[in-house]
Amino acid sequence: MSGPIGITITGEAVAAPFRNAITSVTATASPKPKLVGLLATNNAPSRAYAEWTAKACKAVGIDYELREIKPSQGGEGAAEQSDVEEAILEANADAGVHGIMVYYPIFGPRQDVYLQQAVSPLKDVEGLNFTWLFSLYHNARFIDPRRLGGPATQIINKTAPSPAISDEDGKLVKAILPCTPLAMVKCLEHCQVYNPLLPYGSRAFGRTITVVNRSEVVGRPLAALLSNDGARVFSVDLDGIQEFTRRKAAEDGSSSSTFLPQHVSRSIDMTLEECLAISDVVPSKEYKIKTDSLKEGVVAINFSESKNFETTIKEKASLYCPGIGKATIVMLQRNLLRLRDYQDKLAAEA
Fold it and tell me: What's the CA gap between 275 and 211, in Å, rounded?
């Protein structure tokens, strides 16, 4: 072999068709979809992300407004939690606002998770509200928007023939998914890791994927999404390795789950190297993956700001994506358009 043969796939290549579709919708929209960003710290990365969000929204015809919550005493650091919560509630109640995103981290994991739940699921473009996470983990791909104000368990119809993957009565809408995991799935679809010849909901069947990260924002939701689509997933983090697989239906067609036929996970006694050796795809975050440990022809995707693969990655990888930031922001914008449609649908029925 004279040199690396792997092909680089950019986040822009994944994002472009979705961005074009968004622009075609906003070109005739009146009023324009409006996204409000809430910035409550002097954190430089958060401010940079807010500025990038503003530019990305302007480029596709989305009205973006940054609302800054200053410290009550006019000092440095973060605003008061009560002030941030009040800003979220005000945006929830503002009929002119179609989506809300909060620039985290602000106060730390426990308080930030609380604030995530304060954002109305009808305006949660990041898909971090428990309502959306519940539908993700229970493989409820279509939900009843009329029930979004109640408990998460009520947004799905557990008695429908195929409630996870269909809308048989025409009254359901697609569930909102977290932006980064969704961008990862779209990247896999672009790379043809997902098989379009298979039925919807099973297009990752036969794939083995290692996800190096199990955060509650990215890694764990991504492992659940992939396993719900039929993949065998190794979820790797500092506290060990878990295997995510799709729950097998009983022979009589029933499910052992009280809710929907979603994934199952279990701890396994394997090393990272053993997982990588049999994996078709390796999404990575905050960990350096050695090229020698990878399977020939692997698809390698980096979804953090750090460079988590060695410079020799394309000697083993058939496809290598160095970053998915542009795909992530487009998925956020796509979520915004869907949420605006859901709001309009509910207003028309009121």
Answer: 10
* Strand partners for 246: 263
Pairing of strands 240-246, 232-237: antiparallel
DSSP symbols for 316-340: TEEEEE---HHHHHHHHHHHHHHHH
Q: How far apart are CA 272 and CA 294, in angstroms?
A: 10
Residues recognised as catalytic: 179
Structure tokens at 136: 């993700």
pLDDT digits (tens, 9 = 90+) for 265-298: 999 999 999 999 999 988 887 678 999 999 999 9
Q: Which residues of the chain are under the pLDDT cut of 50?
A: 1, 159-164, 251-252, 255, 257-259
Helix/strand/coil for 68: strand
- For the chain, the residue count is 350
Of the candidates 267, 266, 195, 276, which has an alpha carbon nearest to the alpha carbon of residue 229? 195
SS3 assignment, position 189: helix
Does an H or E element contain 346, and which? helix 325-349
Give the residue from 258, 71, 22, 225 showing the smallest Cα distance to 159. 258
d(CA 20, CA 35): 18
Residue 189 burial class via C-beta count within 10 angstroms: exposed 0-12, middle 13-18, buried 19 and up: middle
The SS3 call for residue 65 is strand
CA neighbor of 98 nearest in space, from 29, 16, 192, 35 = 35
Q: pTM for this one?
A: 0.89
CA separation for the pair 31, 62 (Å, rounded): 10
**CB distance 300 to 322 below 8 Å:** no
For residue 153, what pLDDT is reported? Answer: 56
**Spatial separation of the C-alpha atoms in residues 317 and 115, rounded to whole Å:** 40
- Give Rg (Cα) of the chain: 21
**How many CA atoms lie less than 13 Å away from 42 in the CB half-sphere?**
7
For residue 213, give the nearest of 177, 179, 245, 181 by alpha carbon: 181
